Structures are given as structure tokens and as C-alpha cells.
């Protein structure tokens, strides 16, 4: 949990004035609840956990070995994803950049630091959500991934979502939003409403990419509105 003084610093980083109300309800636990006792042998739960972890390992190994599109030719390494496999929030961006390609982890550069501040402003630690991208290899010169590249990676992302079963997906940036929602509608028109991922009931909320916010800091207030809206959608999903 983030203490109030640190949270105020993160709100400041998001361009939020400190006189805004802080009487929000306490942040829900972002970890999955403990498995209730049902009378079943403990080995049932253990076997389920082992099975899930095996699936994660197999999926990550498949991504590391993937040569399905041209992006694999210039990568330093794949960028699979990071965070809790039991997360209720899933953060999905567009593609790795240079820093991510070197370190093998999404959102680790300046944009990653701002994303951390965005999450912490809500009271969430980075390690309690799950963060990944639409594509797992860096496009040359940080260009947008092409449709054929996102198509080749789509099955990996679907499996990540299926394994986590998040209560909400936060789509970071236009490319992520349009690919997740299979649309060409602009990011501005996608903001401020609840979408659904594929044929699931998983809510998707759209906001700006942190890299864009670094270039356009005045838009941070809009991003904060998006985050507050996402929190309200998340709380509602817990009640459904």
C-alpha cells in the first residue's frame, strides 16, 4: 500500500493539484483473494498452481523462440511481460522501446517511470498489476507495429489474458487500444467509456501512452481522469 505523502508526490507528477479531494474509498486489494477452503485436498490447489505456472513458462518460452514475423531479426531479446500472475489489473501497451529491448521488461524507460507514477497515484504498486505489450519485440526505430506483426503476436496476448483473467484492462495508447478493440476509431473517441475485450466480459478502459504525456504534459489531467474512471469501472467489476 502507498502511504499518503508518497501518493501526493505521484499525484503531483500526474499534474493533479493537491487540493483535490482525497476522500476516496480505500484502494481494493489488487491481489487475488486467498483460495477458500472447500474440503478438497490441498494437493488440488497446489496442482492448479503448478499447472498455471507451467503454462506461463511454456508461453514465455514460445515467445522467446518466436520467429513468426520480421521483428525477431533485430531484437536483443523478447519482452514478454512483468508483474503478478494473479493481478486484477492488466496494463497493455503497444511495443517495446530501446530500453525495454535491452532489459527484457516492458515500460522501464522514462515512459515506464511515468506509468509507475500513474499506478502509484491510484495506490497500486507496479508488481501487483501485470504489464505487457501488444507485440513482444521492438519495432525498428520505435515505429508503430504493422498489422501483420500485431497479428502474429495476438495469440500470445490472448493466452496471457486468459491465464490472468483480469478484472480490468487498461489500454495504454492508440495502437494498443485499436488492436485490443479491433477498431480504427481514434483514441480521443475511445476514452471515457467502457469497452469489452473480444467476446469476454472483461472491461477495457483507454488512456494516453506515457510517452505521449511526456511530450504533452498538459494532457496529464485527462489521463488522471481516465485513471479515476478506470478505478470506478474496476470497483463495479468487483461487485458484478
Write the layout of secondary structure elements.
Elements: H1 4-13, H2 42-64, E1 82-83, E2 89-93, H3 98-103, H4 110-121, E3 130-133, H5 147-164, E4 168-172, H6 174-181, H7 187-190, E5 195-196, E6 203-207, H8 210-215, H9 220-239
Parallel strand pairs: 2-3, 2-4, 4-6
Antiparallel strand pairs: 1-3, 5-6
Structural class: alpha/beta
Taking the alpha carbons of the first and last residues, their distance comes to 25 Å
Main sheet properties: 6 strands, mixed
- What is the H-and-E element order? HHEEHHEHEHHEEHH
| Proportion of residues in β-strands | 5-15%
Instruction: State the shape.
Output: globular
> Can you give the helix content as a percent range?
40-55%
CA radius of gyration is 18 Å
Low-confidence stretches: 19-43
Q: What is the average of the pLDDT values?
A: 87
How many helical stretches? 9
Order of strands, main sheet, comes to 1-3-2-4-6-5
Number of strands: 6
Detailed description of the structure:
The radius of gyration is 18 Å and the shape is globular. The protein has a 6-stranded mixed β-sheet with strand order 1-3-2-4-6-5, with helices on both faces. With 240 residues, the chain is an alpha/beta fold. α1 (4-13) crosses α4 (110-121). β5 (195-196) and β6 (203-207) form a beta hairpin. It contains 9 helices and 6 strands, in the order ααββααβαβααββαα. It starts with a helix and ends with a helix. The chain has helices spanning 4-13, 42-64, 98-103, 110-121, 147-164, 174-181, 187-190, 210-215, 220-239, and strands at 82-83, 89-93, 130-133, 168-172, 195-196, 203-207.
Amino acid at each position: 500500500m502507498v502511504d499518503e505523502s508518497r501518493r501526493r508526490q505521484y499525484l503531483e507528477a500526474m499534474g493533479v493539484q493537491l487540493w483535490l479531494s482525497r476522500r476516496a474509498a480505500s484502494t481494493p486489494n489488487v491481489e487475488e483473494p486467498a483460495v477458500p477452503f472447500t474440503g478438497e485436498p490441498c494437493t488440488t490447489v497446489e496442482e492448479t498452481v503448478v499447472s498455471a505456472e507451467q503454462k506461463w513458462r511454456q508461453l514465455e518460452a514460445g515467445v522467446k523462440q518466436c520467429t513468426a514475423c520480421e521483428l525477431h531479426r533485430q531484437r536483443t531479446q523478447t519482452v514478454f511481460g512483468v508483474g503478478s500472475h494473479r493481478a486484477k489489473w492488466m496494463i497493455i501497451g503497444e511495443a517495446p522501446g530501446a530500453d525495454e529491448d535491452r532489459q527484457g521488461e516492458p515500460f522501464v524507460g522514462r515512459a515506464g517511470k511515468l506509468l509507475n507514477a500513474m499506478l502509484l497515484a491510484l495506490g497500486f504498486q507496479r508488481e501487483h498489476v501485470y504489464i505487457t505489450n501488444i507485440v513482444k519485440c521492438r519495432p525498428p526505430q520505435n515505429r508503430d507495429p504493422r498489422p501483420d506483426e500485431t497479428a502474429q503476436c495476438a495469440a500470445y496476448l490472448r493466452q496471457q489474458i486468459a491465464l490472468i483473467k483480469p478484472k480490468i484492462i487498461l489500454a495504454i495508447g492508440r495502437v494498443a487500444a485499436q488492436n485490443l478493440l479491433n477498431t480504427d476509431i481514434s483514441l480521443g473517441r475511445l476514452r471515457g467509456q467502457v469497452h469489452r475485450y473480444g467476446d469476454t466480459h472483461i472491461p477495457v478502459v483507454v488512456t494516453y501512452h506515457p510517452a505521449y504525456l511526456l511530450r504533452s504534459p498538459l494532457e496529464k489531467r485527462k489521463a488522471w481522469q481516465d485513471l479515476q474512471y478506470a478505478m470506478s469501472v474496476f470497483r463495479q467489476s468487483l461487485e458484478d
